[in-house]
């Protein structure tokens, strides 16, 4: 199975000002594409840190997705950090200028210095368009560099997602059991031991005083997943729902 | 300034099933305590990964906060991983058993094997109580190990937060400017260059078609923060709001 990391770049997440939702959005997509998301890292707007974390993740995972730091202001330094990672120059590229210019009334005439910063793309990178704003993201090697604004991030994910991963999603089966986790822990333990290839999660919930556990099984093989799921349902005395 | 990392442990976050909100909750608290949150890492329920990531973060930061993996089921392996980190045995402790037992009708008699797992605490660790459930978290060296269920996590944060950090919060001043980021990028750049000790963030927003930028300045010194904030307001032609 292919592996991935998501790197969320931005002081506003670390200060608590902004609740990151981009990683959750992309995480769900990766499941659909059969890609195993191994880690999410939230890091500050710091050139050296971005470079070092992207370097580590890019060499360890099949795909790396970044979010944030590609706008026009002083704290937008992701493109520079990624260019450093891959020892490639960061240049104002004509194809990126064209995309940007389409977004302004007077086209290229409206591109001031700040706006032109958004056309700086590492040499050799492939652009990621988006349907919301003119400013493109880019792909270099196995690193996908996207915007932080959720609406634009999501539009960029839609652009790239068709071309990555496999057609075999990671499937899941879920059952809610209205008991305490500690009452069914032995049963789950037994299954986790017997079926090590199946991911078995146990998530307690409390909905306005109604306590229970959601049990989630995950695997790419539908037949095997259903078989083990039905065995667990039987042991839990739950009706077969598959 | 003291530094911190948050480590969110749980496959349910990486699969997109669950949106993490614990790190945002704690991030806001750390700002109040003048602690600089340097990174948030979301990692899977994997013994070796938890051990290695906690080891790295604990040696690099003043405080490490973990969330998740201290319940009664097979996928709750955080306590074991942390004990491994510090080369200390994981034992069922009497003080933790007492706390747990208070939560059940028949006290200790109700503590089955699964529940007793929640009383396994690394030798030498200090317990973190919580007002929601009996199961405690714990503190070992500079690592604070807390539950993943948001209600319990937040209760545990309330228990520990008074005893950490300083009385000098990281202060912030925010102004909303109804223009495009690229129109004010030069002004911000100038300030970021001149006042390198002040964190200046620029966050575009789009509220139902109303475009603007939120500019956030952060510093622990109120006088200095106000001075620079008022200078920026003047340059942006915004009314003085401080």
How many beta strands in the DSSP annotation of chain A?
11
Q: Which pair of protein chains has the largest interface, and what are the residue counts? A: A-B, 63 and 63 residues
Oligomer: homodimer
Distance between the termini of chain A: 25 Å
Instruction: Give the rounded overall mean pLDDT of chain A.
Output: 94
Tally of structural domains of chain A: 2
Amount of helix of chain A: 25-40%
Strand content of chain A: 25-35%
Overall 3D form of chain A: elongated
Report what the structure shows.
Two copies of one chain form a homodimer. Chain A has 242 residues and is α/β, with parallel strands linked by helices. Chain A folds into two domains: 3-163, Molybdenum Cofactor Biosythetic Enzyme, Chain A (3-Layer(aba) Sandwich), CATH 3.40.980.10; 171-235, Alpha-Beta Plaits. Chain A has helices spanning 11-14, 22-32, 47-60, 78-85, 94-101, 113-117, 150-160, 181-194, 222-235, and strands at 3-9, 36-43, 63-67, 90-92, 120-122, 126-128, 137-140, 143-146, 171-177, 199-207, 210-219. A six-stranded mixed β-sheet of chain A has the order 2-1-3-8-7-6, sandwiched between helices. In chain A, strands 9-11-10 form a three-stranded antiparallel β-sheet, covered by helices on one side. A two-stranded antiparallel ribbon of chain A has the order 4-5. Chain A is elongated, with a radius of gyration of 22 Å. The two termini of chain A are 25 Å apart. Chains A and B meet through helix 1, helix 2, strand 2, helix 6 and helix 8 of A and helix 1, helix 2, strand 2, helix 6 and helix 8 of B.
